[in-house]
Design goal:
The protein is of the alpha+beta class and 365 residues long. It folds into three domains: 100 residues, Recoverin, domain 1 (Orthogonal Bundle); 108 residues, no CATH class; 109 residues. It has 15 helices and eight strands.
Amino acid sequence: METTEKKSEWSGGSSSGQVLDRSDIMELVGNEDVNHKFHELNKDRDGQLSVKELQPAVADIGAALGLPAQGTSPDSDHIYSEVSNEFTHGKQDKVSKTEFKVLSDILIGMAAAGLKRDPVVILRIDGEDLLEFINGPSYEAEMVNIFSGIELPDGSLHDCLIKALEKLTVEQGMPPPSDFWVIRSIVAPALQSRTGPDHDKPISQETYLVEFKKLAENVARHLKEQPVIVAHSENTFDGSGIKRLLSNKFELEKTLNAAIENVSKDRNGKLPKEYLRVALDVIASSASLPPIGAVDQIDKVIADVLEMMNTDDGKTVKDDEFKKILTEILEGLMLELEGNPISISTNSVVHEPIASSSTPLQSSS
């Protein structure tokens, strides 16, 4: 589903995408109950949407993606057709309520996954980027690096190839290899059609590079036959959001006061320092941080800063001292993230989950 002619900034091949922010997505799918929308579209009340009945929803998606109206441009009409095909899988004449909800559910999940300012890129992955990667100048160096990080003391080449495939990213043209649909429809068939010395030991780097390229070529062939639509969300925590908050004294004071309101005081009207973590969670969104518990790497940075400031000493402090310590924690987090930014990405395949008849990806013994 190519949603724009402009290629993604981080993708050199054909996996082009349109960037949507959270407000775009929530306007698209979050303002109206999906069941209500389904029944509104289902004019003949047969419990399924025909391709014709589906068109208003497709038009809404096109509008949210910033496309011109259907019928005004051959390029955009092709995209509308691809969107419709995603609902119908390109074969069905009717779409059930479950199928209708799939894309909406995924987009809502991506929008609400934690960070309201995250962009979401809708990508069509068709194998071309993967072929470009395995035939490009960086292939050997990147795959050798992956090989050196795989721990398989008693594993076969088959196991090694699976683990290497799991390390590839959408930037290299690989849809999420752990996704059930991708396993069943792309990875498993590619593995079955591969031939090679699976049980040669020890596994040499040269054999690994040659055999992985063969496997990747098979994956690319299956992707060409069944392109995968991926919703990609990416964010980098570099302390800039904290810096903006700290530089705005009025906003900072308002945010700190709001945090204090969520912390229980003791009988003397003081605030336990152990509640600093709770207060920090309250102001996380204002500082462009994820909620505590959402991103492991960020949680570790927070834990290190809190430990450094000895916040677990069991003492209680007055409001002003509590806010002063909270500000110092923010300053510490800002410095840590400025020095070592943390990038997080999330990928969701825009497909209805396949039933239990799917073939799981398993390592050979």
